[in-house]
């Protein structure tokens, strides 16, 4: 039996993607993102492996806490189950700073 190592497909409008979220280290503040923007810990932004830059997604924890972010970077690259890296502010909005890694569902709002 073969085991698939393929990454989960990027969500389309109306079809959510489930996986794990992490957030950027504070030490990355000011570094350029893949889109060319500088990482701002106070902005509601995120990294996704394949969604187009500028795509807006809702990120929702299993307890219902949710945040809306704009994709402006590529990643995460630490494990296939991780599907999104959030800015510090976005992570604070859904209460994941202490946990570090949390299960989420992401849904495309617009692109």
Compile the SSE list and pairings.
Elements: E1 17-23, E2 45-47, E3 56-61, E4 66-73, E5 82-86, H1 88-93, E6 102-110
Parallel strand pairs: 1-5, 2-4
Antiparallel strand pairs: 1-6, 2-5, 3-4, 3-6
Give your account of this protein's structure:
The protein is mainly beta and 111 residues long. Helices cover 5% and strands 34% of the residues. It has one helix and six strands; from the N terminus they run E-E-E-E-E-H-E. The chain has one helix at 88-93, and strands at residues 17-23, 45-47, 56-61, 66-73, 82-86, 102-110. A six-stranded mixed β-barrel has the order 1-5-2-4-3-6. Strand 3 and strand 4 form a beta hairpin. The longest helix is centred in the C-terminal third of the chain and has 6 residues, at 88-93. The termini are far apart.
Features of the shown structure:
111 residues, mainly beta, six-stranded mixed β-barrel, 1 helix, 34% strand, disordered N terminus
- Percent in strands: 25-35%
Q: Biggest β-sheet, characterized?
A: 6 strands, mixed, barrel
Total of helices: 1
Structural class: mainly beta
Shape: globular
Total beta-strand segments: 6
Q: Which ranges are low-confidence, i.e. pLDDT below 50, for 5 or more consecutive residues?
A: 1-8
Quick structural overview:
The protein has one helix at residues 88-93; strands spanning 17-23, 45-47, 56-61, 66-73, 82-86, 102-110.
